[in-house]
Specification:
The complex is a heterodimer of chains A (565) and B (118).
Chain A lengths: L4 E5 L3 H13 L3 E5 L2 H11 L3 E5 L7 H12 L6 E5 L4 H9 L4 E4 L4 H49 L10 E4 L9 E7 L5 E8 L3 H6 L1 H13 L4 H15 L6 E9 L4 E7 L4 E4 L5 E4 L19 E4 L5 E5 L15 H11 L3 H15 L11 E5 L3 H14 L7 E7 L1 H6 L3 H8 L9 H20 L10 H16 L6 E9 L3 E10 L23 H8 L2 E5 L4 E9 L3
Parallel strand pairs in A: 1-2, 1-3, 3-4, 4-5
Antiparallel strand pairs in A: 6-15, 7-8, 8-9, 9-10, 10-13, 11-12, 11-14, 14-15, 16-17, 17-18, 18-20, 19-20
Helix pairs in contact in A: 2-3, 7-8, 13-14, 14-16
Chain B lengths: L11 H11 L3 H24 L3 H18 L2 H13 L5 H25 L3
Helix pairs in contact in B: 2-3, 2-5, 3-4, 4-5
């Protein structure tokens, strides 16, 4: 045992001398006092680690001194051992009652004294460790709360532009829900309608909250730029998949509502089943049919959605598993049955949302909440009722370029190792009205580009692609052709003009090839499939028209888009 | 109750151990004990003179402890009897006990001074 400082208080000089000598020989520092008052004074002045206190002393006895010393020690544990030749139980109990931790009988036994010193010092050190850890925990907790406040402020800035306060939305979300991993986002689309997203990240605290930031940013950023729900989901999935560690993901449900078309599209990944409640009381259950976002690779991501018509007065309900898993004091979960019963027995749908909230709160009233409850109801209304709010958003949104044309020509070395399509698509999507059509536009560009490059510049023949062997041969030739490309070009021409309903985009792709003799007017139809391969008829199926031009080395397609309202 | 007179004046075993513990301070301890003992006996005498039960008991208790630590087991035992009887003591008996303790102290003192390294 390491050296400690011991206060010895005894009015008997010879006793004090013996005890002090023993302690010094054991390697401790000794401070002496001849009565209780001196003991208290010495305690304050010397801050000893251990106090040996005679019970009966003049001026102030040991019991009183022990009480004062324990008071002065405060939270620190300074063991007090009473020195006594008292033998009766009542007297010994009195020593402990006064705050003594142990007693030592006279005459002193060195071995027992040392053992008792060791025992009390173990106790003191344990207490010290405990206090340090307690203080550390308290400090960590303060620090964590501070961090959460900052993180919450950042998150609120990212998620501020939401329209959760819209009159058609009722929602429940705890102020610190983001630290339970729950996220609820809603935004008007520039083309009309609304996007809603409810996410429930695995885990709690900052790890759960951290993914909510990019999620909210992508949701709001892409919605305001006019991207469609599936594009947004794909982007969120790709982002979360790349930034979240394995095992952390986000159960999510996303809703796209069109007040104009009176439809709802719903994508559900890992959330409990959601309900579409018709005004006539019919309840349609939509079960989650996808993996949560952030799990699968973007190539494997499935963006298929439920599609339903919705009449004014119909409602849609979306929730995290907080309701289903809310436990009462018997540890019973609230469960889906109770929820369904509420739906079945509530005639006035206006009351339903509050009923659910009340019923769940009643269920868990005596037990600690183990998961916060996040829930949303959205009411379909006539488009005119919501238009005013949407206008605010529309005016704030960039209208983008409307009447413009652009030409982009790529030569052989660029064709060899650069894919010009993302760059071109990016330009096209500067037009907000084109953003919901990004998938279609990409298909158009990709088909027209490969047609120009492969059949025009490199003069490959589609005839090869009749069987798998031919396919392989074709792609081998394509690669060799590209590697050895020294001449030729592909030129893209775009012309965008505004129309009453939206806009029209003329895409013309020209190549350096010699062309070919096309029939009649060169118009390609959706069903065609002979010498064009499958690409150009696909383009035709997506456009107003598609046709060959010039000597057959040009292909032209007209894509038209309409505003949703 | 043990008869004090059956005990030795000094417990030889404790004496050896104490000498071992105190080493060069052994002489100081014995001198301290002797002067302290005179003081304690005086206190006991004063308590008896004014018939103060509490003072008598405390003084006897304290004397018992210091005698015990030094190995003066007979004197310690006598102080212990006095402490225990204090509450219901016949003051005349107390006077006798004090005289007996004083004479016992002289024996202890004599023995100690014989053994004290000069």
């Amino acid at each position: 045992m390491s050296q400690i400082k011991v206060l010895v208080a005894d009015d008997n000089d010879s006793d004090r001398l013996i005890l002090s000598t023993i302690l010094r020989k054991q390697g401790h520092l000794v401070v002496q006092a001849a009565n209780g008052q001196e003991a208290v004074d010495q305690f304050e002045a010397e801050k000893p680690h251990l106090v040996l206190l005679d019970a009966l002393m003049p001026v102030m006895d040991g019991f009183e001194a022990a009480r004062l010393i324990k008071c002065l020690a405060g939270e620190d544990l300074i063991p007090i051992i009473f020195l006594t030749s008292l033998k009766d139980a009542a007297s010994l109990a009195k020593c402990l009652d006064a705050g003594g931790d142990d007693f030592l009988s006279k005459p002193y036994n060195r071995v027992i004294l040392e053992a008792k010193i060791n025992a009390t010092q173990r106790m003191r050190q344990m207490h010290e460790t405990l206090q340090k850890q307690r203080d550390q925990i308290a400090e960590n907790n303060t620090y964590m709360l501070q961090e959460q406040r900052v993180a919450k402020a950042v998150f609120d800035n990212v998620a501020h532009s939401g329209c959760l306060d819209s009159p058609i939305i009722k929602h429940l979300l705890s102020p610190l829900a983001v630290f339970n991993g729950d996220v609820l986002l809603a935004a008007y689309k520039p083309s009309g309608g609304m996007h809603i997203l409810l996410g429930d990240f695995t885990g709690h605290g900052l790890p759960a909250a951290i993914g909510a930031m990019p999620l909210a940013e992508i949701f709001y950023g892409m919605t305001v730029k006019g991207f469609g729900m599936t594009d947004i989901l794909r982007e969120i999935n790709m982002k979360l998949k790349s930034i979240l560690p394995v095992g952390v993901f986000c159960c999510a449900g996303m809703v796209d509502i069109s007040f104009w078309k009176r439809t709802i599209s719903v994508w559900l990944g890992g959330l409990p089943s959601c309900y579409l409640l018709r005004q006539n009381g019919e309840k349609i259950t939509l079960a989650s049919n996808h993996l949560p976002v952030g799990v699968v690779d973007h190539r494997a991501f499935d963006d298929s959605c439920y599609q339903y018509s919705m009449e004014p007065g119909d409602r849609f309900y979306l929730w995290s598993d907080g309701i289903h898993e809310a436990r009462n004091d018997l540890n019973e979960m609230y469960g889906e049955e109770r929820l369904e019963a509420l739906f079945d027995h509530t005639e006035d749908h206006d009351l339903l949302f509050d009923r659910i909230n009340d019923d769940v709160s009643e269920h868990i009233k005596n037990s600690a909440r183990d998961d916060d409850i996040t829930m949303l109801e959205v009411l379909m209304v006539d488009e005119s009722e919501i238009r005013e709010q949407q206008m605010v958003v529309k005016m704030g949104a960039v209208s983008g370029p409307t009447d413009w044309s652009m030409s982009y020509k790529v030569g052989p070395s660029t064709l060899r190792d650069f894919n010009p399509l993302p760059l071109l698509l990016h330009q096209l999507l500067e037009v907000p009205g084109l953003r919901p059509h990004s998938g279609t536009l990409y298909t158009l560009l990709a088909e027209m580009f490969s047609n120009a490059l492969e059949h025009g510049v490199m003069r490959l023949s589609s005839d090869l692609k009749v069987d798998p062997k031919g396919f392989a041969k074709y792609y081998q030739m394509r690669q060799e052709g590209l590697d050895n490309l020294t001449a030729g070009f592909v030129e893209f021409n775009f012309e965008h003009t505004p129309t009453a309903e939206g806009g029209s985009l003329l895409i013309r792709v020209m190549d350096s090839g010699s062309g070919f003799d096309y029939d009649d007017d060169g118009v390609v139809k959706a069903g065609d499939g002979n010498f064009h391969g499958r690409g150009l008829p696909l383009v035709a199926s997506l456009c107003e028209y598609a046709r060959h031009r010039g000597s057959g080395n040009q292909f032209e397609a007209l894509f038209e888009w309409q505003r949703e309202i | 109750m043990i008869n004090s007179m059956e005990l030795p004046v000094l417990d030889e075993h404790m004496w050896v151990e104490l000498k071992d513990i105190m080493e060069e301070d052994f002489g100081l301890l014995l001198e301290t004990f002797l002067s302290d003992a005179v003081e304690r006996l005086k206190c006991i005498g004063e308590a008896i003179a004014v018939s103060d039960v509490v003072a008598l008991r405390n003084a006897a208790h304290s004397f018992k402890g210091s005698c015990g630590n030094i190995g003066a087991v007979r004197l310690s035992s006598m102080a212990s009897s006095l402490e225990q009887q204090a509450a219901s003591i016949d003051w005349a008996v107390a006077e006798t006990s004090l005289v007996e303790m004083q004479s016992e102290y002289l024996q202890v003192q004599q023995l100690i001074q014989q053994k004290l390294p000069s």
